[in-house]
Amino acid sequence: MKVLILDQLSQLFLTHQDQWTDNPREAKDFAFTAHARAVAKGLELKCFQILFYFPDINYRIVVCDSQGESSIAKV
């Protein structure tokens, strides 16, 4: 399982060195949701989601978003 940041406006995932990709397998694993949220806020992203991503089954779960909601919603 990976913890990812998704920019909801571009639908891209953050990778290493502040690059972006549409492939969640290439996205940076932030390991902890609190760390991912701090990074997203530090980048001043307006609309983002923090996701749990399971690459072996290509499955995503939204953990929280830029509004602060922690709504474990399946994507």
Can you give a write-up of this model?
Helices cover 13% and strands 36% of the residues. It has one helix at residues 33-42, and strands at residues 2-7, 12-14, 20-21, 48-54, 59-65, 73-74. The protein is built from 1 helix and 6 strands, in the order E-E-E-H-E-E-E. It has one domain (2-74). A 6-stranded antiparallel β-sheet has the order 3-2-1-4-5-6. The longest helix has 10 residues, at 33-42. The chain has 75 residues and is mainly beta.
Keywords:
75 residues; mainly beta; six-stranded antiparallel beta sheet; 13% helix
Question: What topology does this entry show?
Answer:
Layout: E1 2-7, E2 12-14, E3 20-21, H1 33-42, E4 48-54, E5 59-65, E6 73-74
Antiparallel strand pairs: 1-2, 1-4, 2-3, 4-5, 5-6
Within the largest sheet, what's the order of strands?
Answer: 3-2-1-4-5-6
Strand segment count: 6
| Termini gap | 15 Å
Q: What characteristic shape results from the CA principal axes?
A: globular
Order of helices and strands: EEEHEEE
User: Structural class of the secondary elements?
Assistant: mainly beta
Beta-strand residue fraction: 35-45%
> What is the overall number of helices?
1
Q: Major beta sheet, specifics?
A: 6 strands, antiparallel
Poorly predicted sequence stretches spanning 5 or more consecutive residues: none
* Number of structurally distinct domains: 1
Q: Determine Rg (CA atoms, Å).
A: 11 Å
Helix content: 10-25%
Average residue pLDDT: 90
